[in-house]
Design brief:
Blueprint: H1 2-9, E1 13-18, E2 23-27, H2 30-34, H3 42-51, H4 58-69, E3 77-82, E4 88-99, E5 105-113, H5 115-160, H6 166-199, E6 205-208, H7 209-222, H8 227-230, E7 231-234, E8 241-244, H9 246-262, E9 270-277, E10 280-287, H10 321-331, E11 335-341, E12 345-353
Parallel strand pairs: 7-9
Antiparallel strand pairs: 1-2, 1-5, 3-4, 4-5, 6-8, 9-10, 10-12, 11-12
Helix pairs in contact: 5-6, 5-7, 5-9, 6-10, 7-9, 9-10
């Protein structure tokens, strides 16, 4: 048969499983190359192969198996197997379901090894996350420095009075304009980066949020300023899995942490918490800052909100950041909420539902 010849030449594992008898009735030679089994012994080896499922994926696989039997499984599913040496091997399963005229049910599929693709994607996500976080930190620190320079220039102008030399007045004016322009350029760059990310469709993947959030916050921990001393990360002992667009959601976390630092004194703390929720997962960013006035809270997450305020160190804001954070979270079918009291700090909560 043409199908069998194509399957024999395929680099991916192809199989047909007879559900009523519980036996594999077809397996192609790729099974021996990819999964290191023996085609003639596939039914004897099947229990051992299922035992190699990653412990964190077994519940997911049980749910997907039931959906597959009922004909409700989506086009593709990713799963992990543990190799004998303990390393993870990633696969993408393309499932098929066929019921013949007699009502006999067969489950077939193509199993593709995507370990190399997964490693490349993980490295790319890690690089992009670090890039976004470093960009946030640089924007925060550089904008603060230019704002301070502008304030110092204003002070010098006031102290010099009207008798100052024209050349000095001209140079001070140039410093003011340069500082103002530089701050605007920095924030335009960050806003454009955030806007571009929000407009790209989501590319979801199942990840452990503990690991990803820890990677996202590492640049803050290594920052030479007050951020490294102020940041606390609280993680549960068990993995917290969610299907997210890693780059986009971590950009939200980075933006919220940077925002928390803007309004937290040097002796305050910013605490990031990741925890499972009965309906999904929760990420909280809590600060010990100046808080948000009650009259500003209802419009805080609006685009170009009137609630925008400069940071404690003079950092300006366009009011775009929180609005874009809300947009990205809602693209994940989640919610972004804030609880704050003036003088008592603020807590932003991102809740993402189960896939």
């Amino acid at each position: 048969m043409l199908f069998e010849k194509q399957a024999e030449a395929s680099a991916h594992v192809q199989f047909v499983y007879d559900l009523p008898t519980g036996r594999v009735v077809f397996i192609n030679p790729a099974y021996e190359r990819v999964l290191h089994g023996t085609c003639a012994r596939v039914n004897e080896e099947l229990p051992g192969l299922l035992d190699r499922l990653h412990p964190d994926d077994r519940r997911l696989w049980q749910d997907n198996w039931q959906r597959w039997v009922e004909g409700q499984l989506p086009d593709e599913q990713e799963l992990r197997l543990l190799a004998p040496d303990g390393t993870e091997q990633w696969f993408c399963l393309t499932p098929y379901r066929h019921q013949d005229e007699a009502g006999h049910l067969y489950l077939a599929g193509i199993l593709r090894d995507i370990s190399a693709e997964q490693e490349h994607r993980a490295n790319s996500d890690k690089f992009n996350s670090k890039k976004n976080t470093v960009l946030e930190i640089l924007a925060h620190d550089l904008a603060g420095a230019f704002a301070l320079l502008r304030q110092m220039t204003d002070y010098v102008q006031e102290e010099m009075g009207p008798t100052a030399a024209p050349k000095v007045v001209e140079m001070l004016g140039l410093m003011q304009r340069t500082s103002r322009h530089s701050v605007q350029l920095i924030h335009d760059l960050v806003d454009q980066e955030f806007l571009a990310a929000a407009e790209i469709p989501l590319k979801r993947e199942r990840v452990d949020l503990r690991e990803k959030v820890a990677e996202c916050l590492e640049p803050f921990r290594r920052a030479p300023g007050h951020e490294a001393r102020q940041l606390t990360l609280e993680l549960p002992p068990e993995p917290v899995y969610a299907e997210i667009d890693t780059n986009k959601l971590l950009q939200v976390v980075s933006n919220l942490v940077t925002n928390a630092f803007k309004f937290t004194p040097d002796d305050g703390r910013v605490t990031v918490t990741v925890e499972p929720d009965p309906n999904g997962v929760r990420i909280q960013i809590a600060d010990e800052g100046i808080g948000i006035p009650a009259q500003l809270q209802p419009v805080l997450l609006e685009r170009f909100t009137k609630a925008r305020r400069p940071g404690l160190r003079g950092e300006p804001t366009t009011g775009l950041g929180l609005s874009l954070c809300k947009t990205i979270v809602e693209l994940h079918r989640g919610t972004l909420t804030v609880v704050s009291e003036e003088g008592q700090g603020s807590t932003f909560t991102v809740e993402i539902p189960q896939a």
